[in-house]
Specification:
5 helices, Pnp Oxidase, Chain A, elongated, 10 strands, alpha+beta, 29% helix, binds flavin mononucleotide
Length: 197
């Protein structure tokens, strides 16, 4: 474990809350709202899906040239929020972000269904698109190009790992007297604080 590692306690707590969300009927428990910035005060956010979690942090995949990709290159820090309405839980994280290894990105890309692999190549994510037909034409061309062959990972598509320095678990309670527990990483060790709701 490096000093940036998530503690086992936090991973356990996250996994426990995640399972509770799923059994409570949360339709998309891996969805998190990811906030990024360009470093000059311009902030943006969007939903991405959590694809892995370990001591290094929370992994998601995207297009490097997208708005978020460009912001993460300019300012490699982010925050992410999970809302699990069905079980009354919110989890927030914030910290530095880096790209996953090329091998890890290749390995995950290979598990995606073919349509999504082609889609990753076809979409110039976040750039203007003159019509849906243009996009579908690109898809057709790519299908021909890769017919009978494996679709390689586009060089502009990869995973990022958010290694949190703060993680907050919020649990809904009666009369808006919710529970909030904030974990903070300082000098390589995690501390836990209860916050006012
Ligand atoms: C439920 C849901 C899951 C999504 N998952 C991803 C994802 O894992 N990766 C991704 O690049 N975009 C995902 N998107 C699309 C993003 O929200 C966003 O539209 C896209 O990444 C472009 O964002 P940007 O222009 O801010 O970079 C998802 C959208 C929704 C609604």
């Amino acid at each position: 474990m490096t000093s940036m590692s998530l503690s086992g306690e936090i991973i356990d707590e996250f996994n426990k809350a995640f399972k509770k969300a799923r059994v409570s009927g949360e339709p998309e428990p891996t969805a998190m709202v990811l906030a990024t910035s360009d470093g000059s005060g311009n902030v943006s956010s969007r939903t991405v899906l959590l694809k892995a979690l370990d001591e290094d942090g929370f992994v998601f995949f995207t297009n490097i040239n997208s708005c978020k990709g460009q912001q993460l290159t300019a300012c490699p820090r982010a925050s992410a929020t999970f809302l699990w309405k069905a079980s009354g839980v919110q989890v927030q994280l914030a910290g530095p972000v880096r790209r996953v290894s090329e091998e890890a990105a290749d390995a995950y890309f290979a598990t995606r269904d073919r349509g999504s692999q082609i889609g990753a190549w076809a979409s110039r994510q976040s750039e203007p698109l003159d019509s849906r037909e243009t996009l579908m034409r690109r898809v057709e061309e790519l299908e021909q190009q890769y017919e009978g062959a494996e679709v390689p990972r586009p060089p502009f598509w990869t995973g990022f790992v958010l290694s949190p320095e703060t993680v907050e678990f919020w649990t809904q309670r009666e009369f808006r007297l919710h529970d909030r527990f904030l974990y903070t990483l300082e000098n390589g060790s995690w501390s836990r604080l209860r916050l006012n709701p």
